[in-house]
């Protein structure tokens, strides 16, 4: 299971997994403050093990700062899988890049189920579908 929210949501995600299942946390918008973040990471790495699950965290920003090569290799593969319809992300809404503020405001409401996609076409300066 992948969790982009973090915070107290991590406990619910761990509980939703069967024994031996893996949780990959990759965001912590739901963890407000250092204490909440520390509790979240403790739950990912220790709490999951105590409940017979596996917890991991994927921090792309930290990894990219150390070595940008893996991200540059992974992104084309991810987009190829997406273009080949190997997975179908749940998209809630698409915004042109110039409306990113509105997209973030919507995301901050906590009412978004699925992804918000920002689009841009460098050739025309207008929005386009990302795949």
Written description of the protein model:
There is one protein chain. The strands form 2 sheets. The chain has a 3-stranded parallel sheet with strand order 1-2-3, with helices on one face. The protein starts with a strand and ends in a 12-residue tail after the last strand. It has 5 helices and 5 strands; from the N terminus they run E-H-E-H-E-H-H-E-H-E. With 131 residues, the chain is of the alpha/beta class. It has helices spanning 9-16, 34-50, 60-66, 69-83, 100-108, and strands at 2-3, 22-25, 54-57, 91-96, 115-119. It is 43% helix and 16% strand. Strand 4 (91-96), helix 5 (100-108) and strand 5 (115-119) form a beta-alpha-beta unit. It is globular and about 50 Å long.
Question: Concise description?
Answer:
With 131 residues, the protein is an alpha/beta fold.
Residue-averaged pLDDT:
85
Helix-strand sequence? EHEHEHHEHE
Describe the largest sheet. 3 strands, parallel
Helical stretch count?
5
Overall strand count: 5
Low-confidence stretches: none
Rg over CA atoms? 17 Å
Instruction: Return the structural class.
Output: alpha/beta
Distance between the termini: 24 Å
Looking at the structure, what is the overall shape? globular
What spatial order of strands do you see in the largest sheet? 1-2-3
Measured as a percent range, the helix fraction is 40-55%
**Proportion of beta-strand residues:** 15-25%
Oligomer: single chain
